[in-house]
Amino acid sequence: MQTLIQLKRGELKGAVSLTLSEGLEHFPEEIFELSDTLERLDLSSNKLTALPIDFGRLKNLKVFFCSENLFTALPEVLADCPLLDTVGFKSNRIETVPGRAINLNLRWLILTNNKISVLPPEIGRCSRMQKLMLAGNQLTELPDELKNCQGLSLLRVSANRLTALPGWLLTMPKLAWLAISGNRFNIKPDVLPPAFIDWANLEIKQLLGEGASGMIYKAATNAGGKEVAVKVFKGAVTSDGFPEDEMNAYIAAGHHPGLAKLIGQIKGNPEGKTGLVMELIPPRFFNLGMPPSLASCTRDVFKEGFNLSLNQVLKIATTIASLAAQLHRHGIMHGDLYAHNTLIDEAGNTLFSDFGAASFYDITDEQPARAFERIEVSAYGYLLDDLLFLCNEKGNESILKKITELKNECLAPAISSRPGFEYLTAELGRLLELN
Description:
Blueprint: H1 4-8, E1 17-19, E2 40-42, E3 63-65, E4 86-88, E5 108-110, E6 131-133, E7 154-156, E8 177-179, E9 196-198, E10 202-210, E11 214-221, E12 227-233, H2 243-253, E13 262-267, E14 275-279, E15 286-287, H3 310-329, E16 332-333, E17 342-344, E18 350-352, E19 359-360, H4 366-390, H5 397-410, H6 421-434
Parallel strand pairs: 1-2, 2-3, 3-4, 4-5, 5-6, 6-7, 7-8, 9-13
Antiparallel strand pairs: 10-11, 11-12, 12-14, 13-14, 15-17, 16-19, 17-18
């Protein structure tokens, strides 16, 4: 992070990236002195309410984050930056999105946690759009023009006021990661809560990690001293939706060897927060991938030099397919099926995590239920593509060829022609036995 003093002194001349977070109330005009080189600008966590009328002077700007400010409307001047690719205005006070503000070059737009009730039809002219994040707003419908964004791969519309999903959404050829919970059309399944565990009977030891929806701690139970993992939900809307929906989906998922076992639900948290107690994942497990970068947008990235054997690939692929099949039998769409949510060990044993984007759907409504599963199958196809890329074992060409064929079937543009997870589980299980 740089400072305003450095900027004013001219010490940042030639900068490609600039981050300023100093409670700014006005856009620093000195930023324009970087217009020949500046590609990434982050002005999040300030007190800005407007951008200058000549913002388009930043002709090389590709990425602009302005989250956690005080904007009430998406600035129209965003459309004046010819190369702008990624825009984030999360957690402002935005009520209005003028059509003029939609930069047609956008590939990734983040408007999470605002007060937006209407999207302009101009959004449908963003032919490059791949990732659209709208959770935590007040939308009652999606504009029909959005169906023109045929490259849209990830859509977050959880925690809005949608009364229905448009039929065209379930035919989008590239859509793979969809979060829709917390809307007026959602069903509210009866979820039998697990045993309650009193907060006073947990000894919190250390923070293991933090996600969009909560904090994960290593803890011990006072009864026997068993080490467990405790996820405490933050209680606010996240980029994926409501923590309550995440908790209910995890509970409803049931037992599966690909899931960390659920032990109970906390009660008596001193701050009144909810949470879950789960088996502690052994330290030998590690994340298969890392979240998408700004450049990769919707695709995970991997550590350089990281490889997998064919046996590992098959074990990972079979476990995830089997778990996904179980979820969809329960009417649960995970919504975030990615390598970065997949934990593996050196033997290829696999655990799946993060139900933050999970949604329930009515499995008795056959046509949309089939579409929801096939949308998730597309995400699984991308995971197979990643696994094939990571596979360093080229000995059994017939098995690799079959995995490639399954991947291509999963990524078929026509949703109705994609296989289901039950079929994928059976086919990959057979390949695992053959290997």
